[in-house]
Structure formats: structure tokens, C-alpha cells
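pinned: reference chain
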Amino acid sequence: MKTAVKRAVKRGSSHVCDVMTEKPVCVESGDSLRDLARMLDENEISGAPVVDDQDRLVGVVSRTDLLRRLLEGPIEARPGEDWLDLLMADSVGTFEIDVARLGTVDDVMSIDPVTATPEETVATVARRLAAARVHRAIVVDPSRHPIGIVTTLDLLKVFPH
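pinned: its C-alpha cells
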């Protein structure tokens, strides 16, 4: 695999801006996990940057992070509580209190996301993703505002067909 990336880069270095998805869907710090689940589902995405009130990157959250919380529950969860059913419930009444106990995006996000700049080469970012064992890098401007996302699937675009 490394050889294929090197061949693609030698023929003409691809840059992150050539393969990234622009204008990423972001989630705000403090959003509920129920809102996160809906947003991921509605946009058919597996993860999103987390931004503060000034739209600066503060983390990244994925379906895997959400699933882990739903399977484990919050730290103070009682044994046998089924958190996955709570998130999927249509009725808000009695479930709202329990869903709130799950926490917010801040409780499950990764606070040190892999980032990239539009000018970086695809090979450089691919190595960074592999080293971190993650599937997405958040493309940021100099002020850390998310301007794109590049995923491992996006990186496959540089491989010859």
C-alpha cells in the first residue's frame, strides 16, 4: 500500500484540497448525544468536528464514540441499564431525564483530533491518519475553523483505477 501512495505522489502530488469534502457538518460543544445521533443519521455521516461558540475546532466525535457510550452508559450508570433503548425511544416524557444522564458531545468526543491543512499532501495526511489509527482528519484554516474533512475513503481517490 505504501508503494502505491508513493507512486501516486511521484506522478503529481495530490493535496488535501483535491480530495477533501468542503463545508463539513459540525456539532457544537454541549449538544446532547440524542441530537448528535440525529445529526449523524440525517446527514448520513459517521463523524463530525466539534466546534466551540466561535466555530473553532475543539474535538471530533464519531458513531463509534456514541455507540461506546450507549453500550457502557455514563460513569454512574447502574448495572443492567439499557442506554441504547433510551436513545432510540420515540417518547420523550420519562426518557428525557435518563437521556440527559448520558451526557453531551463533550463527554465522548476526542479532544485531540487529527488535523490537516488544504496545502498538505495526501501522503502526509494518510501517514498521520494511519499512525493515529483514525479514519478522518479535520481540515482547518489558520484560526482552527473547520473548512473540510478528509477521510480514509477520500484518500483512496489518489490510487490508480
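why pinned: The beta strands are 21-22, 27-28, 47-51, 57-62, 115-116, 136-140, 146-151. The chain has one domain: 2-158.
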